[in-house]
Amino acid sequence: MNINIGLKMENLTELAQTSQAWPFEEARKILSRLGGKPPEKGFVLFETGYGPSGLPHIGTFGEVVRTTMVRQAFQILSDIPTKLYAVSDDMDGLRKIPDNLPNQDMIREHLGKPLTRIPDPFGTHESFGHHNNARLQAFLDTFGFQYEFVSSSECYTSGRFDPMLLNVLKHYDEIINIILPTLGPERRATYSPFLPVDAESGIVLQVPVVERNEKAGTIVYKREDGKLIETPVTGGHCKLQWKVDWGMRWAAFGVDYEMSGKDLIDSVKLSSQVCKVLGARPPEGFNYELFLDADGTKISKSKGNGLTIEEWLKYAPEESLAYYMFQSPRKAKRLYFDVIPRAVDEYLSFLEKFPEQPDEQKLGNPAWHVHNGTPPKEELPLSFGILLNLASVTNTEDKAVLWGFISRYAPNASPKAMPMVDRLVGYAIAYYRDFVKPNKHYRAPTVEERKALEDLAQSLQKLTPDVDAIQTEVFEVGKRHNYENLRDWFKTLYQVLLGQDEGPRMGSFIALYGLDETVALIEGALKR
Length: 528
Known about the structure:
It is a single chain. By secondary structure, this protein is mainly alpha-helical. Among the domains are: 384-439; 447-527, Arc Repressor Mutant, subunit A, CATH 1.10.10.350. The protein has helices at residues 12-18, 22-34, 58-77, 104-108, 128-142, 152-158, 162-170, 172-179, 185-190, 242-253, 265-277, 309-315, 318-326, 340-353, 359-362, 366-370, 384-394, 399-409, 419-436, 447-460, 467-480, 486-498, 506-513, 515-527; strands at 44-50, 82-88, 148-151, 194-196, 209-213, 218-222, 228-232, 238-240, 257-261, 284-288, 291-292, 333-334. The strands form five sheets. A three-stranded parallel sheet has the order 1-2-3. Helix 7 packs across helix 10. It starts with 11 loop residues before the first helix and ends with a helix.
């Protein structure tokens, strides 16, 4: 995802002005906000936020990749410099132990403390927050994102937020009046935008503030034991409640654009009001729909019920993940293992179409946004789905076995000549091993299905390995055996021959696997 505007198209900026691709629509909003002039800070600031209470998941990555796509689109429309901050809310107190963490008893001793002051349960970094921050950055770096990582803890403790924290203290009553109407009676009685970090326990406290000293820059809070404590609001002695924190951060950094999930629409409104009270303009934004797990439930870092970043990359190229994030961001989508094969093939299809598309269509092609205007030209004689089914039928985890079939089907193909195909072969084997093989269930054919399969075997023996001719003959066999809906015929082939409910385009698959081999496959199924 390196930012490298290399698409050789005339009138590129002019085409971008009218492109209906959502990143360009968002970029035009930012340009309108600026009136065509650079902001005082000299650059346009994009921001993404990350809550490191759990391990990074793909939803977190999705926000960064989508924001980067908007940033790339903006760079087509304007030469104003840009920056992207990836901000970690690692000053937050840990309220609950994520289910998927080791050494939970050790973490339990530190509940309530800022994430950067809790020991790393994995034993690799100086704190839990540092560990998860490193995990996030490592993945973003593999994509070549151009970003600056910002730690909330560092901003609080270094004094970077101090001027704006004093500003929050100055406008305390106005901010309280924004937030209190949204709270229940019990929470309203004790609410304060400032959360003191207790000097004795190190815990981030949610306690009432009984006194404020704007001149001294301090507050007095009442601990649960009744003791009154005076503490500065600066220097990391306090942090802000998150809705106030969000608005304060926009004001402190001068954020111009930040997107967020649909579940945060009301929070965005409140934080925007806080930002205005602090004398700044809230950023432009975009609300995307949430990802769902296999059961249609919102994915959660703490539950670990979605795909991890590493899991997707085990079974598919990173470009397919970026593609999945680009498509329909305002539509709720399942984010589970079974979406991977289709996402890969859809990405490859757009990549293949790109070179032949007219210029006005290229800016709407997802491959343009995944590769920032310079999609590579790949020779892809086979789809990922076909490779996956080849791995399934051959029951192999040996790439050389699959390449034997591929090179016979496409004589010019080789791992060296087609590195993308070689990558896909490895992914197909991994996906087959972990998801297809454990769930394969062959069924015996019915009497009528046996007749159709015998007919198909005899018909294939008369053909040459021509994809279209094979596909036509498969259709004809189904028609000869009175399948009113040919989908039922193909489902029979998938269930009896492949042991699964869905499968490939049979013409392409048979041509790849081989006519003789397919006949043997049918004969073997008839003997089962």
